[in-house]
Amino acid sequence: MINLQTVYEDTKYAFHLKLLAGNKGLSNIMNWVYLLEDINNFSFLKESELIITTGLGYSGEQWLIQFIKSLIGHHSCGLIINNGKYIHSIPNSVIDLCNKESFPLFTMPWDVHIAELTRDYCTRIFHNETIKQSLKDAFTYILTKPEDTYTYEHTLKAHNFQLDSNYCCILINVAKQLQNNYAFLQHIEILCRNNINHLTYNYTLFYYKKRMMLILQDSPKNDIVELMKSLHIKLIKQSSNCQPYIGIGSIVKGVRNLTKSYQQAYAALMVSMKGEHPIRLFDNIGIYKILLSIKDMNILEEYYKDILSPIIVYDQAHKSDYLTTLRLYIKYNASVQKVADETFSHRNTINYRIRKIKELLHSDLSTLEERFPYQMAFYILDIWDDNLVIQ
């Protein structure tokens, strides 16, 4: 995916392009070029395509207005009118529409061959995709073998990523039920790119383990936080199916330490998905930060199993969900009424479950001191692998 403004600036003289309107949309991503003449063929359009038309079907001002409105509705990134034969001038109403919608509108003289522009632009897109893939390969390799600088050094330096720069890793998780939907994931990637490609510092963005990973180079912490807040709002606004959660790792010195920032971003993401805040910084996740600083994760695993295994085993055997009841009971400081309210259950039902839980745990859970070990176990559960099963 390539920035429309970059392509325009690089080729406006070669193809005699003139930007008439919609300059605020130049930062949009262009992922393909499509020649469209028939207003009935909009179903073939894909998001962020740059449309070219000669106006073969042009029948007047209203035709062109409707044509452009349909392109906007299909999230095209812009329109080039190859004018001079079918369309000779662009009405002011069309220019006003494109400016209002921040939809880039260009004209190109009739004597410029569309095939030449298409070939040039497609070549640029393919080249950009090659760079994108090589950076993805390099950074994913770094996450597994950061000490092997020889393998990835050339690729990074070729694209202005320096080995000793500061790096921050950010993970973005979208709707879980749509993580295998390629069209949806591509839509989210385009939204992300459209909202961050104004950045002046170096970055790369790609999917890693079904999550969007953003790696920023030499970006100030305050800028990162504000950028993610803005992105979160826009993702929700621009995609009805998107339920974004964002985890932000700390800024680390040197690309060799990127794995640390990634692990922190993952931990912050897990915490954000479990709690009430959709954006979490590792530096601000409290007790979780302490737990994740323990190098021997077996200690956390053993603690988790020792404390909660009676409930987990019982739930697995009886297909119940006492673990959730216990979590809420701890969360609401042993208030049966609040647990009943949140689970839409009768108070007597919750009382029965709590009695059973106390029997299983051999604990009365009546004091803060008795409840604290279980609270700590749930903190560990929040950052643990979702696939952890008591054997």
Automatic annotation (TrEMBL):
Coiled coil segments of this chain: none
Domain CdaR GGDEF-like per the UniProt entry, residue ranges: 154-270
UniProt domain Purine catabolism PurC-like: residue ranges: 16-125
Domain PucR C-terminal helix-turn-helix: 322-379
Similarity section: Belongs to the CdaR family.
Name of the protein in its database record: Transcriptional regulator
